[in-house]
Amino acid sequence: MSVPEDEERLLPLAQRWPRASKFLLSGCAATVAELATFPLDLIKTRLQMQGEAALARLGDSARESAPYRGMVRTALGIIQEEGFLKLWQGVTPAIYRHIVYSGGRMVTYEHLREVVFGKSEDKHYPLWKSVIGGMMAGVVGQFLANPTDLVKVQMQMEGKRKLEGKPLRFRGVHHAFAKILSEGGIRGLWAGWVPNIQRAALVNMGDLTTYDTVKHYLVLNTPLEDNIMTHGLSSLCSGLVASILATPADVIKSRIMNQPRDKQGRGLLYKSSTDCLIQAVQGEGFMSLYKGFLPSWLRMQSGWITQGHLMRPGTEFSRRFES
C-alpha cells in the first residue's frame, strides 16, 4: 500500500529515503573516524617502510641510516621533525577513499543480499552469507578505491622524502592523480591492487566471523547481556583477528604503492606482490610482515568505536535496515 504524497512528506528523511540516508550516515561516520584516527594510519605506513631491504639494490642509503622507531617514537619524530599538522598529511585522498569504498561496498552488498543470496525461509540472513557478502563487497569497494589509496600512501611518505633530501613528488592531491596518470596511465592508478583487495577481504572475514562468534559466546556462556559491554569486547576481538590476518597484505600493498618507478610507471623494486613478499621475508625476516601492526589494530578499534558499529553488514544496526 503506497503512502500518499502529503503523508510521505511528513515522514523523517531516514524513512523516505532509507538507502540514501544509510549511505550519508555511513559517509559522515567514516569521515569523522578518518579525521580522528588518521595519525595512526600515517604512523603505520611509516613503520611499514622502515628497514625496507629491497632499497639496498638501488644503492639507497636510507635503509641503513633510518632509525628503528616504535609507534610512539615515530609519532614524536614526525611532530618534532616535520610539524604537528603533518600527522594528517594525505588525509584528503583518505577521505576520498572512504567515500568511494563505502559507496562501492554498500551498493555491492545490497545487490548480493537481495539478488544473489537472498534471505532464508524464516527471513533470517545467515552468518555465512553475511561473511561471503561482506568479503565480496569489500573487494569490490577496495578495487574501486585503489587510486585514492595509492595517492594516500605516496603522500604519507612525502615528509620522509624531504627529510632524506629527496625531491617531493607532488604539489597536492590533484597533481598526484594527474602525475600518476600521465606516467603510468590508467593501469598505474591501480598499482598494488592485488594485495589491497586481499587485505579488504581478510579484514571483512576476520571482522564479521569473529564479532558474531565472540558476541554469541559471551551472551550464552557468561553473565553478560547483549549490551554495549558485549559489543565492545566483541569488537576488540574482531579487530585483533582482522589485524592479524590483514597486516601482511597491508605491508606488501604499501611497499608496492610507494616504490620508485621508471618513466613508464613500472616499479623498480618489486615485480609483483609475491616478489615483494619474498624479498621482505628473506631480507628482513618473517616479522617484517607485521610492521605497523599496533597502530593498525588501534586504528581499527578506534574507527569502529567512532562509527558506533553502524554500518557493518550483519550487525544489529544494519539488520534493522535489511529487514
From TrEMBL:
It catalyses: H(+)(in) = H(+)(out); chloride(in) = chloride(out). Its main location: mitochondrion. Pfam families: Mito_carr (PF00153). It comes from Callorhinus ursinus. The keyword Ribosomal protein does not apply. InterPro entries: MCP_dom_sf, MCP_transmembrane, Mito_Metabolite_Transporter. This is Mitochondrial uncoupling protein 4. It is a multi-pass membrane protein. It comes from the Eukaryota. The gene is SLC25A27. Belongs to the mitochondrial carrier (TC 2.A.29) family. Facilitates proton transport across the inner mitochondrial membrane and may dissipate excessive proton gradient associated with oxidative and metabolic stress at neuronal synapses. Regulates glutamate-induced proton conductance in astrocytes, shifting the energy metabolism toward aerobic glycolysis and lactate transfer to neurons for ATP synthesis. Can transport chloride ions with lower efficiency. The transport mechanism remains to be elucidated. Homotetramer. It is found in: Mitochondrion inner membrane. GO terms for cellular component: mitochondrial inner membrane. Keywords: Membrane, Mitochondrion, Mitochondrion inner membrane, Repeat, Transmembrane, Transmembrane helix, Transport. Coiled coil: none annotated. Solcar repeats lie at residues 21-115, 125-217, 226-317.
